[in-house]
Automatic annotation (TrEMBL), chain A:
InterPro entries (alphabetical): AAA+_ATPase, ABC_carbohydrate_import_ATPase, ABC_transporter-like_ATP-bd, ABC_transporter-like_CS, P-loop_NTPase
Protein name: Nucleoside ABC transporter ATP-binding protein
Family that this chain belongs to: Belongs to the ABC transporter superfamily.
GO-annotated cellular components: plasma membrane
Localization of this protein: Cell membrane
Molecular-function GO terms, alphabetical: ATP binding; ATP hydrolysis activity
Domain ABC transporter, first and last residues per copy: 25-260, 277-527
Keyword terms of this UniProt record: ATP-binding, Cell membrane, Membrane, Nucleotide-binding, Repeat, Sugar transport, Translocase, Transport
From TrEMBL, chain B:
Localization (cell): Cell membrane
GO cellular component: plasma membrane
Lineage: Bacteria, Pseudomonadati, Pseudomonadota, Alphaproteobacteria, Rhodobacterales
The protein's name in its UniProt record: Nucleoside ABC transporter membrane protein
Keyword Cell membrane carried by entry: yes
Species per Swiss-Prot/TrEMBL record: Rhodobacter maris
Keyword Transmembrane helix recorded: yes
Membrane topology: Multi-pass membrane protein
From TrEMBL, chain C:
Bilayer disposition of the protein: Multi-pass membrane protein
GO annotation, cellular component aspect: plasma membrane
Stretches of the chain forming a coiled coil according to its record: none
Subcellular compartments: Cell membrane
Protein name: Nucleoside ABC transporter membrane protein
One GO MF term attached to the UniProt entry: transmembrane transporter activity
Amino acid sequence: MTLGKDTGRQATAAPSNMQAGVPAIELRGISKAFGPVQANKDISIRVMPGTIHGIIGENGAGKSTLMSILYGFYRADAGEIFINGRPTTITDSQAAIRAGIGMVFQHFKLVQNFTVLENVILGAEEGALLRPSLAKARKTLAHLAEEYELEVDPEAVIEALSVGHQQRVEILKALYRQADILILDEPTGVLTPDEADHLFRILRGLKAQGKTIILITHKLREIMEITDRVSVMRRGEMVATVTTSETSPEALAELMVGRKVLLHVPKATAQPGATVLDVENLRVTDGAGVARLKGVSLKIRAGEILGIAGVAGNGQSELLEVLGGFAPGKIEGRVSLSGQDLVLSGPGATGETRRAAGIAHVPEDRHHLGLILDFAAWENIAFGYHGAPDYQANALFMDNDAIIRDTEGKMARFDVRPPNPQLPAKSFSGGNQQKIVLAREIERNPVLLLVGQPTRGVDIGAIEFIHRRIVELRDAGAAILLVSVELEEILSLSDRIAVMFDGQIMGERLPDQTNERELGLLMAGVATEAGAA
Amino acid sequence: MDYATLIEVLGSTLRLGTPLLLACLAGLFSERAGIFDIGLEGKMLMAAMASGAVAATTGSAWIGLGAGIFASLLFAGVHGLASITFRGNQLISGVALNFVASGATVLIAQTLFGQGGRTPPLSGAARFSPIQLPGVETLAAVPGFGPFYAKVLSGHSILVYIALLCVPLTWWLLYRTRFGLRLRAVGENPESVDTAGVSVIRLRYTAVVLTGVLCGIAGAYMATSLQAGFGREMTAGRGYIALAALIFAKWRPWQALWATMLFGFLQAIALRPDVIEGTLHMKIPVPALDALPYILTVIVLAGFVGRAIPPRAGGQPYVKER
Amino acid sequence: MAKLPTWADLVLVPLISLLLAAVISALVILAIGGDPVEAVTVMVDGALGSPYGWGYTLYYTTSFIFTGLAVTVAYHAGQFNIGGEGQAQLGGLGVALVCLALPWPHWSIALLAASVGAALFGAAWAAIPAWLQAKRGSHIVITTIMFNYIGAALIVYMLVEVLRPIGQMDPASARFPVGAKLPNFGEIPGLSLIFSNKVPANVSFFVAIAACFAVWALLWRTRLGYEIRAFGKSESAAVYAGISPTKVIMLSMLISGGLAGLMAINNVMGESERLVQNASEGAGFIGIAVALMGRNHPFGVFLAALLFGFLYQGGAEMGLWTTIPIELRLLVQGLVILFTGALDTMVRMMLTPFFRTARGAA
């Protein structure tokens, strides 16, 4: 290991570097392995000061690991880091902050019941007493707000702020620590297109002031829109660094994936049958009294995929939970399945009764809902169906051998690797875990399949497989409700698209008669002319 | 119940509430930092034995107090090691240390003194003697407030006043200092502290040390002030009751004072069957009185007095995300 | 975190933990001026050196199997039941009420009825904390501890005011009728060739072994067991799968309390033959150590209970014949819980280097 030694503060001279052509950040030969997984392989990159540099790549390409190394969360196994031309050892976050690096994580690192000010000064207090620190921060924040369109009420408590505002607090935290290099990890994943535009204005303002910005994303549109240069990562390696104005989305996509991407899943036109799911004026109020669904109505027919587009947190999760039988809080409205009314709350509304009614559910969060990670694969195949007659030996006992045999079959049909029913779920890759969940839910031939974020954290090969299976199930006559925050996925899989915003359906569109722009507006709560549909 | 009886009961409320208060504040520091500590009981017990034994040997209550704090810190250190460094199960660690304390206290006291696991009775300078507050004699004559001042507020050992002082001190530390801000943050979201470049481990250990010190004072008070010496299992579940009070107080210092005094009052009442029978006009069996503080603890925990949200990161060891 | 082969995790970790506890205990014995070698000799001699010693060791083992299984069942549901002590005390009350109710014609019928009584009372004592946990989120660790204290007070009240025969001074129930006397190992054909008539180990030992099998089948072969284990691993996922948290918490705690209560057929019915104060003598707490040491598996519980039976009987002998106080047992118990339950990562980290080199060589 040959990392540099100097960890002193040396990040104040960005403008002079700009003239000298010294990169703000230079990484040389960074490698990092987690056990047998090589997350970063011999990565070198130069980021010039006063630019916005994009890093793009698929899930699991190693972008976040690389940035975590830069922020002192992990130590690289090999390689060197230079900040403003000086070799720098970054042992922990403290060292990164001293070197002038600020990081805005994908999952915010805020204390929910603290005020904005308290969050900003945490770790950067002036002295042992709080009052002077708070006073100083209040003043500094007012300046920053003016300079960069970063208005946030300094006395507001974080949990009362919107996601967009919380993100601003993260940026303020970094600026308050006088960061000259700002790293943003998938910053728009939780934002509406409108909020994202605002963020980009802020970033341009920061760039104009000479700050260096690294933007990590998997969205090509953002790279094209805002970056000066872009580096592409694939499977832990840096495959190319190009000037943004000299490339195209298609070229970048090919670099990311390593081959031509199929943007559209081959599927025949839907042959919809009778109405399967009929949701009327569904309202959900959660335990804290917040309205999550504000009168949602929708219909899905047999042999049809209804895609729900929307920014995360606009009620899609609650919709899946109500239909899946496990939403907490107060639920009103009417939901019927093939003409039979479903019980919406109380003891009659459980995952068990829903499965009995023919509703299968691939949940959004497979780690916390879909799987028991410590259970063996075969135990997970029985999960939720552990009461199924074919899994019982007699009135008293389950038939574990039958479940194992069934699991072997399912693993073969869904190409789960390694095909070993005894392995615990946690030792499978994301894609194979999702195949286990999918095999369990699809193979019981449900009347209705609920599926949330089917390809989140799934490698590209598995994505195609999963999409094909969903379409096959549709063609076999099932009704499918697809929730995804990936617009591309919604556009390529759905037969109809409904857009959710703030607990309501903003409108319905047909995939071949709409585009990302129009859907984006609906996702931001802006109704377009045809929105009355 | 007449005024004179009430004064007496309130006086013993403060006396009996003090160890609960100290233990409750001890738990507050720990839990605010995200470390569950079911082992308050064991730390108090160890401190009671250590202070009782050392005070008996040296004849000094103060040296006894030091020994109590040291013993409690030792246990706090093991709990810290298990819950912070080795990311073990905090509940199990606390429970285990309580058993170790139960065994070790009797073992040591028996070896040292051979009196069936007790320490010898303390007297004179080996105990903390009551302190008269200034102006007691002049104020005592004032009707109403006079007796309250003389018999409830005045006449306790120094440790009672230290415990009371710890309340505003804790509040100030928690809400007005950098340390307090970081402590509260680390119990809510340790990642926020870590990414801000502050050591989660050091903060949590500091909290655990404070917990140890306060439990040490609580235990020493039991043996050298409330009683005259250490006796087997003398803490009798006070560590657990303090935890219930902490939940009741929603992890806030002033509320902790009121909550522990409420439990102190219950214990004081339980010692006065005559008062209860006089008030309720019926005979209450002694075991029922003994069980009263425990029953009320359950009622408090049942949340019939309002829901409590614990610090969000409580009980979870901190592991940097992959 | 350190990764070990499964067998090492299951066998080596508890053994090393035990070794660490033993080393610390030996140091403590030295510190208080005792002789660890003498202590071990006395313990082994007293607990395993004679059929008489075995008779006591297996008697304690029986109790610890029940309380260890109690902790195990709750643990799989993610519930930490440290109310086994109170539940065992209440189980004793159930046994006493059943045994004193009728002039039982034969011990087998009496055992059946007393088992039901013991389990019901133990379960009832776990029911309130369980309900409060399920419905109000009250911390089950603290509530079950409180119920230990409340249970102790209740037993005192029952013994002093209700069950004590007129004219008797000590707070205890009347002696159970002869028909409710369980045969001890000295009275069972076959075993009587080895054991004398004086040993406390009795037929409930076989009930305990049956309970091990029953708990194993429950946890790994039934739907309820599946639901208990799933819920214990992930509450949110269990709810997604249609598993009712209330049902799992209630049933697992009722079974747990029932098992702890069932212990009373050993000590109250099989040994003292009347209900006395503090009949369970901390066996409920030892169940925690037994469950952790036994890795929450019934077979492990059986072995750990045997070990603690030895420690208990040996410890008693040690308290009798050496200057070392009997409370050392409590210390060992605490240390075992500490090392197996809270410092297990440390133990694993100590072991990892050995396996790394072993694998590297292979």
